[in-house]
Amino acid sequence: MRGMLENRVALITGGARGIGKGIAARFVAEGARVAIADLNGEGARNTAAELRASSEACRAIGVPVDVTAADSVRRAVEETRTQLGEVEILVNSAGFSKIARIEDTTEEIWDRTLAINLKGVFLMCREVVPAMKQSGWGRIINLSSQSGKKGNSSYTAYCASKFGVIGLTQALAQELAEDGVTVNAVCPGVVFTEMWGPEQVADYARKRNMAPEDVKEYLTSKIPMKRAATVEDVAAVAAFLASDDAAYLTGQSYNVTGGTIMH
Fold this sequence. Notes:
By secondary structure, the chain is α/β, with parallel strands linked by helices. The chain has helices at 18-29, 41-54, 70-83, 107-135, 156-176, 198-208, 215-221, 231-242; strands at residues 9-13, 33-38, 59-64, 89-92, 138-143, 181-188, 253-256. The protein has 8 helices and 7 strands, in the order βαβαβαβαβαβαααβ. The relative contact order is 0.14.
């Protein structure tokens, strides 16, 4: 049975772990040829090897990329083109988050957050768009967040970057609407990936003045469905948006929040 992404070439940033890895696994299951791009090049290659081991038909490669550097982005796209073919689907999943009140948000935190979460999306899109326009088909899926829909205290840099992703998505969707290229954003709510490690849990606990061991239960209790999203929940939406079935959808920002955000 053919998958809905059969033989499509996808490049997924931040694909070595977390949501990006989950999207890569779903795309492979749908028949795509996948380049897993990550700042952790070894992690990207390991994830690609793990996916190849799960299926003889799988075509997955790992490529190193620093999404904040144009030369690195160019090399990652060139390597994908050489090994798999022209990039037809781009998923911008690389991300960074630091919980800090405004007075504790250093310029370094601000610059790093905006560079990875927003500039990185811009650089990746700029690199793949010419070939997509030439072929008359393309899918760009940008990972925003529920924090790109509603501001959240102690997330000034993160919210700014994720609101920016939605603005970029809408602008680019307008620009490419006549070229057969769709551009959409996915806005996950709480997903307990590796990003929610001990440091971020401790930061959130300080923000709420609670014990670190209570953080995940507290966050889950605020979700109408009473469970956090899984990477598979997010990957399912991304796979649909990458498919031909989503050909008439562009410039949209889809919530995967269990009912927390409804606009």
